[in-house]
Specification:
The structure holds 2 protein chains of 2 kinds.
Chain A lengths: L1 H24 L3 H26 L4 H29 L8 H10 L5 H5 L1
Helix pairs in contact in A: 1-2, 2-3
Chain B lengths: L27 H23 L3 H26 L3 H25 L8
Helix pairs in contact in B: 1-2, 2-3
The chains are: A mainly alpha, B mainly alpha.
Chain lengths: 116, 115
């Protein structure tokens, strides 16, 4: 039981570490949102499952926290990405000329006022 | 009047003593997991402090909220107290509300305000 809990804790902390590594290594704000949300959410779930194997009598509160994180974390990251897009933060592209063409075609800061 | 010997309420960082009768000692795998979480916290703090733009700081703060919830739950496991899970849940609710309020504030801001 202790070994299973430790393996889940190690897996979750590995995913949290890789998510934070992507937070540093990714080139763009939107890529950093992906790395900082998906990997860290999966790592948090792994850590909670590990704590649930360590203390099986805490399962109801751990399930509550896991469900809460699983529901609210994508919502918050989506809201952040949407706000950045409408505030005029440009997406990154590997090709510089392609990025300039895309970003001059669409002026994202006016989309929000037209849609609302 | 002399006070009886009681365990202090504060956490002595020099020697953290687990509650009496506990058999929980940290083995190697758990120490490795704690090391990974510490490194992740440091890297997210690096992005929070030295981020080139303000959106990077907001994204790393959003990731640090989840890492903080995980750390509070690990503290609950180390101290063998279920009360810390309530703290983690309330912290999650408040951070979610804060991030949503921040997103609304950016979205209703002026043009080019986010970069």
């Amino acid at each position: 039981m202790r070994l299973i809990a430790d393996l889940f804790l190690l897996l979750g902390s590995m995913f949290i570490f890789l998510g934070a590594l992507g937070l540093i290594r990714m080139p763009d704000v939107y890529n950093r949102i992906q790395a900082g949300t998906k990997a860290v959410t999966l790592g948090a779930l792994g850590v909670f499952i590990g704590i649930g194997f360590l203390y099986p009598q805490w399962w109801y509160k751990l399930v509550l926290i896991m469900g809460f994180i699983l529901l609210t974390n994508p919502v918050s990251s989506s809201a952040i990405a949407r706000a950045f897009y409408f505030a005029g933060v440009r997406p990154w592209h590997k090709n510089k000329a392609e990025a300039d063409r895309i970003n001059t075609d669409t002026d994202t800061s006016t989309l929000h006022k037209e849609s609302s | 009047m002399s006070y009886p010997e009681q365990p202090s309420e504060l956490i002595d960082l020099a020697n953290i003593s687990f509650p009496a009768g506990s058999q929980l000692h940290i083995n190697g795998l758990e120490m490795l997991a704690l090391l990974f979480i510490a490194l992740a916290t440091l890297m997210a703090l690096y992005r929070l402090i030295f981020g080139p733009t303000n959106p990077d700081r907001i994204v790393s703060a959003d990731a640090l909220n989840v890492i903080a919830i995980v750390i509070i739950c690990i503290i609950a496991a180390l101290f063998q107290s279920i009360l810390y899970l309530d703290v983690a849940l309330i912290y999650g609710v408040l951070s979610f509300a804060g991030v949503l309020a921040l997103a609304r504030a950016i979205e209703s801001g002026k043009k080019g305000d986010g970069s």
